[in-house]
Amino acid sequence: MKIAEIREIATNELAERIEAEVANYNQMVLNHSISPLDNPAQIKKLRRTIARMKAELRQRELNK
């Protein structure tokens, strides 16, 4: 997900989306430890997306 798309999301929805993505990330890491994923680069991509979302949420908190 690109930063422009993240900026369009409402603040409360962004917080919910972060929680969902973190849960998805944790599940993906657990599944990868049991049996390798077809594309382990998905983990890296998801981790970066979560970081972008958290950065945008923090920026909104600071601008209030």
UniProtKB/TrEMBL annotation:
Signal peptide: none annotated. GO terms for biological process: translation. GO terms for molecular function: structural constituent of ribosome. One of its GO terms (cellular component) is ribonucleoprotein complex. Keywords: Ribonucleoprotein, Ribosomal protein. Belongs to the universal ribosomal protein uL29 family. This is Large ribosomal subunit protein uL29. It comes from Phocaeicola massiliensis B84634 = Timone 84634 = DSM 17679 = JCM 13223.
